[in-house]
Design the sequence.
């Protein structure tokens, strides 16, 4: 019987093809930060042939450790080449990579171990104690008890030695994988009380990179740097996985330092890098971070958080045109992109959907769909043009352009669900469409606007408030550099609208009375902040994002 061949989207397949064509081309270069000298030194350099050899040796090590199809392999360490090569090795044997944030505490990690039940954990020296504690903690969850089997735990150094001492798995023994084979599980923050493991198939990951190729217009000879955590989708997939396996050169830095990174961008003639706004803002303080000093650096990719207009302006003043990206883990990082050269009146949008991603709107009960008027439209008025932005099969009627609702998405890069979590799958998936949890609208030109998170919507006395709407008003106050609004638990109202402000240098902080008086000019009474905190800098997570939890903690400290 002859069976129909199927496309092989596995990482080992593409790396093998690239190594056959360009064996001696530089592929993975690791840079280690010297904290005292504030410079990077080169720790290792692999050609494509070397990367393939290490991946096949790693695959054989895993087989020797009885790791096979669907087994989970965690890597929890500072950025290093093994993040990528362990994934390639797993793809050679049908196992699943699980990259984890190196800063997870033992309790957080223990809950993930319950959820994914790994067979192997590869960790850095600084993580080993937390990993070992996590494997012994008793965790109670709604869905599982502490896993009975204990994973094999090794440090990165121990893993490297095992790989070096093992013969490579013969490439002829590597079987093609079905396209729907899960290749990675990435854990991401969410509203669920338990860990949320996003499953991405090899096909999901490939289509995510195809989206990037089609929009960023880079090729297999591109040199890129990765400084965001490789445990996050923007670092792991982004463009990093694509260039690792398709013949590019990836400069991997183990820790972020703005001046050292700017120097590395120049010395390695880096053309492209993804980073979050906080990182780019810090790099803008380095005098040599300009297009004159970095003639090769033509694709500064920025995402993970909304890009402030002043930051975009700072980059342009330095001759750098940012590519603003909105991409969830569930989309393999490819949601929408705002590319250089668009009209100025579109600069505050999230851009167009990537070519192989579809974005729609689902109405949210109880939400004022016209709470944030668009340019040229007063609140309460309906824009003249109409856009049908819901899939016809689920649309009860046309949704007008500029109508706010929950963004939903579908496409070949979009996840099919969450690992071991049928309840979350049922709540998040609607046929092929994924509910993103982001609130936004699509304007008459097809541009996507994100105005906030559905879960971040402040519910005060039964009224729903969009933080973004309040933030836009507060940033118009004299001396306010940035404003973030969050709901803080309140006995009377359920949640109190609470504002965190950062002031321009030398400007006097306003009182709560001042803020309420100013905001009351533009907002309904229930939207006016009830609590205020003025801070020198915004609290951020380990990956540079301002989180709801961190903002709420500001008020907890003041209680």
Sequence:
């Amino acid at each position: 019987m002859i069976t129909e061949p199927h496309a092989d989207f596995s990482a080992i397949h593409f790396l093998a093809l690239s190594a056959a064509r360009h064996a001696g081309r530089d592929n993975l270069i690791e840079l280690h930060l010297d904290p005292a000298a504030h410079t990077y030194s080169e720790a290792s350099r692999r050609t494509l042939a070397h990367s393939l050899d290490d991946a096949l040796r790693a695959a054989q090590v895993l087989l020797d450790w009885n790791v096979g199809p669907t087994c989970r392999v965690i890597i929890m360490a500072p950025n290093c080449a093994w993040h990528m090569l362990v994934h390639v090795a797993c793809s050679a044997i049908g196992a699943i990579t699980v990259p984890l944030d190196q800063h997870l505490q033992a309790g957080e990690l223990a809950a993930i171990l319950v959820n994914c039940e790994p067979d192997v954990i590869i960790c850095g020296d600084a993580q080993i104690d937390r990993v070992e504690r996590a494997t012994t903690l008793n965790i109670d969850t709604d869905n599982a008890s502490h896993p009975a089997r204990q994973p094999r735990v090794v440090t990165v150094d121990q893993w490297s030695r095992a790989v070096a001492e093992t013969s490579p798995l013969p490439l002829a023994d590597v079987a093609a994988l079905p396209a729907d084979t899960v290749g990675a599980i990435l854990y991401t923050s969410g509203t669920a009380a338990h860990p949320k493991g996003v499953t991405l198939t090899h096909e999901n990951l490939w289509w995510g990179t195809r989206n990037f190729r089609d929009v960023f217009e880079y090729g297999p000879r591109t040199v890129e740097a990765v400084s965001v955590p490789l445990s996050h989708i923007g670092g792991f997939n982004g463009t990093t996985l694509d260039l690792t396996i398709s013949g590019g050169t990836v400069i991997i830095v183990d820790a972020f330092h703005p001046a050292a990174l700017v120097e590395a961008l120049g010395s390695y003639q880096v053309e492209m890098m993804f980073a979050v706004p906080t990182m780019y803002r810090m790099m803008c303080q380095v005098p040599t971070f300009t297009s004159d000093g970095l003639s090769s650096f033509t694709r500064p990719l920025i995402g993970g958080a909304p890009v402030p207009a002043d930051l975009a302006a700072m980059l342009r003043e330095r001759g750098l045109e940012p590519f603003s990206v909105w991409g969830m883990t569930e989309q393999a990082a490819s949601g929408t992109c705002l590319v250089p050269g668009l009209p100025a009146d579109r600069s505050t949008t999230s851009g167009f959907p990537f070519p192989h991603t579809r974005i729609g709107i689902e109405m949210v009960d109880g939400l004022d769909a016209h709470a944030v008027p668009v340019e040229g439209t007063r609140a309460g008025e309906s824009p003249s043009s109409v856009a049908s932005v819901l899939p016809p099969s689920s649309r009860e009627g046309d949704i007008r352009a500029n109508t706010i609702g929950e963004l939903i998405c579908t496409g070949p890069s979009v996840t099919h669900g969450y690992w071991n979590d049928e309840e979350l799958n049922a709540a998040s998936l609607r046929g092929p469409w994924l509910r993103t949890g982001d609130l936004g609208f699509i304007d008459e030109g097809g541009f996507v606007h994100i105005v906030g998170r559905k879960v971040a919507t402040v519910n005060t006395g039964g009224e729903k408030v969009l933080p973004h709407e309040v933030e836009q008003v507060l940033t118009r106050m004299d001396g306010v550099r940035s404003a973030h609004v969050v709901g803080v638990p309140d006995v009377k109202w359920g949640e109190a609208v609470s504002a965190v402000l950062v002031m321009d240098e030398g400007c006097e902080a306003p009182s709560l009375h001042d803020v309420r008086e100013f905001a009351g000019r533009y907002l309904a009474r229930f939207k006016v902040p009830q609590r205020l905190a003025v801070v020198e800098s915004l609290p951020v997570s380990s990956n540079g994002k301002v989180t709801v939890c961190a903002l709420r903690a500001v008020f907890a400290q003041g209680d």
